[in-house]
Amino acid sequence: MTKNIVVLHGWGANRTRFTDIQTKLESLGYNMFVPDLPGFGEEDPPLEVWGVEEYAHWVHTAVAEMGFSSYVLIGHSFGGQIAAQYANKYADEIDKLILIAPALIRKPRSIGMVAMEKVTKVGKGVFALPFLEGLGESVRENLYRLIGSQSYNHSNGIMKEIMKKVIREDVSHNVVSLTRPCLVLWGTKDGDTSLREAQQLLSQNKNVEVMPFEGADHNFYREDKYDIVKYIDDFVKKE
């Protein structure tokens, strides 16, 4: 049984989101590697527009520098999207895979999404008008959130372009073809990623186990009541 665990955070987050989980797993004897992904936390953004493939390659290089020869890979949301891609390409290095509310299925942009992007761009222009410059920052932030600005939390230009790219990359086929044991943890009230669609997809692979958490949202892993560490520890030890 490997004692090495690599954790990939989600979009807009950083390694500190997993500090509590990391501390608890380390107390159980695990060797943890929880990096900031490029463009988040203390890690500089890429110089070019990356996709999931480039992020997976970066993680592979970073893990190699840690000296891990085998490990359990954990990913949340966007981190789960990267992990699914990673597990398909570097399967020989992974002992097991744990996906938490992973962004696996990416649907084509709907007419509504395209319209929302246009509204967002118009909104930015409107706030530049002299008679609206006095609006408080919080008001503008709430309005941007209301009209669905996809780049709301990421003012860096390159990260906006990266986000536009990765939200169109569907990695669901990678999970269907997984050869390593995989545990998928999902909240039934997740409004960001679809549990129902994923269950239908993941049922095609006998190596994948889906565990729904009743009433849990997209970031349920941070709540003590769900005791994610126990599920991780049990799955890693499972023969």
Automatic annotation (TrEMBL):
Q: Which GO terms describe its molecular function?
A: hydrolase activity
Q: Does the keyword Hydrolase apply?
A: yes
Question: Which keywords label this protein?
Answer: Hydrolase
Mention any Pfam family matching this sequence.
Abhydrolase_1
What are the GO cellular component annotations? membrane
- Keyword Nucleotide-binding present in the record's keywords: the answer is no
Protein name per Swiss-Prot or TrEMBL: Alpha/beta hydrolase
The scientific name of the source species is: candidate division WWE3 bacterium
- Which taxonomic lineage is given here? Bacteria, Katanobacteria
